[in-house]
């Protein structure tokens, strides 16, 4: 089980964009997701094929490569190439296809868990009941091509029992999770003309959080007004750019408090705060307690 920091940062973005569906819970999921691969299979069916979902206790992803058919749960769903189905644990489903165009399906069966890490390495791991994904998605354009490429690569590269293949496939599955949640977010919110610009500015903030960033300077850099910059963040992240910058700094500061012996002054400087006082004040506003309360016992006093 591995995590890829950049991919999970992007997953964090998607989780925040889905806050109307319980963002706090989703955020915990994507920050600490662990993957256990059961089976990956490129299934080629035959004319008049019929079957049922056999393994209902796992998370399943079905990518339709070719053909046409019907999936039945509480209703009938027409199936065709380029469609994705997410089957959460416990969902029963019947599958069939006709004579002319048999289905070809890439199937991925996983157990998913959420981790609760801690500084003393005594974190807990709990099974994940469901991902925040729709049962059926049909991604268009480049997103559809990217998903098709990922499913093909995952199926081609997986070798049961091979440690190297397991690790490589898990890394691809984290990338897949990001792509799926991005597709979901685009379905719900739509991509406005400023979406790519928003992503560039967001990435800029994430890379340069340790610098004394000012919002109006960011706006000038990207040739837009400060009000438009704020509106982009409200539209796609449901918060202000200043609030997002504060959270990025807070997250980095929290890790430095837990895992280093840097003084509060040194942490403030490393995370873009003007001085130790402003760091302590901002941290307490975010966390409800002063930075010193985050220090593990035995780290001693810092400051």
UniProtKB/TrEMBL annotation:
- Note the PROSITE patterns from the entry: HTH_ARAC_FAMILY_2
Family annotation (SUPFAM superfamilies): Homeodomain-like, Regulatory protein AraC
Taxonomic superkingdom: Bacteria
- In what residue span(s) does the HTH araC/xylS-type domain sit? 199-297
What Gene3D superfamilies does this protein map onto?
Homeodomain-like (1.10.10.60)
| UniProt-listed InterPro entries | AraC-bd (IPR003313), AraC_XylS_family_regulators (IPR050204), Homeodomain-like_sf (IPR009057), HTH-like (IPR037923), HTH_AraC (IPR018060)
The question of whether Transit peptide is a record keyword is answered with no
Q: Key word Repressor present in the record?
A: no
Instruction: Output the Pfam families linked to this UniProt entry.
Output: AraC_binding, HTH_18
| Segments of this protein annotated with the region Disordered | 282-303
Q: Which UniProt keywords apply?
A: DNA-binding, Transcription, Transcription regulation
Please give the PANTHER family that the UniProt record associates with this protein: ARAC SUBFAMILY, HTH-TYPE TRANSCRIPTIONAL ACTIVATOR RHAS-RELATED
Protein name per Swiss-Prot or TrEMBL: Helix-turn-helix domain-containing protein
């Amino acid at each position: 089980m591995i995590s890829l920091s950049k991919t999970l940062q992007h997953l964090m973005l998607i989780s925040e964009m889905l806050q109307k569906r319980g963002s706090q819970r989703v955020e915990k999921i994507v920050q600490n997701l662990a993957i256990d691969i059961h089976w990956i299979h490129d299934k080629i069916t035959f004319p008049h094929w019929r079957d049922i979902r056999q393994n209902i206790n796992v998370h399943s992803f079905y990518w339709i490569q070719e053909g046409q058919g019907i999936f039945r749960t509480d209703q009938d769903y027409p199936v065709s190439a380029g469609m994705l189905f997410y089957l959460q644990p416990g969902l029963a489903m019947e599958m069939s296809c006709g004579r002319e165009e048999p289905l070809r399906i890439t199937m991925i069966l996983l157990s998913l868990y959420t981790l609760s890490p801690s500084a003393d390495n005594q974190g807990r791991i709990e099974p994940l009941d469901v991902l925040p994904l729709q049962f059926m998605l049909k991604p268009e354009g480049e997103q559809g091509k990217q998903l098709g490429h990922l499913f093909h690569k995952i199926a081609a590269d997986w070798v049961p029992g091979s440690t190297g293949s397991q690790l490589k496939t898990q890394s691809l599955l984290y990338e897949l999770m990001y792509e799926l949640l991005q597709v979901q977010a685009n379905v719900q919110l739509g991509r406005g003309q400023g979406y790519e610009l928003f992503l560039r500015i967001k990435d800029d903030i994430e890379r340069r959080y340790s610098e004394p960033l000012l919002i109006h300077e960011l706006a000038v850099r990207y040739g837009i007004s400060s009000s438009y910059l704020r509106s982009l963040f409200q539209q796609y992240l449901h918060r202000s750019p200043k609030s997002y910058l504060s959270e990025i700094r807070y997250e980095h500061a929290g890790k430095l408090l837990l895992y280093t012996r840097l003084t509060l002054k040194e942490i403030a400087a490393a995370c873009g705060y003007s001085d130790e006082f402003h760091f302590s004040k901002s941290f307490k506003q975010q966390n409800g307690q002063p930075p010193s309360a985050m220090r593990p016992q035995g780290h001693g006093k810092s400051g």
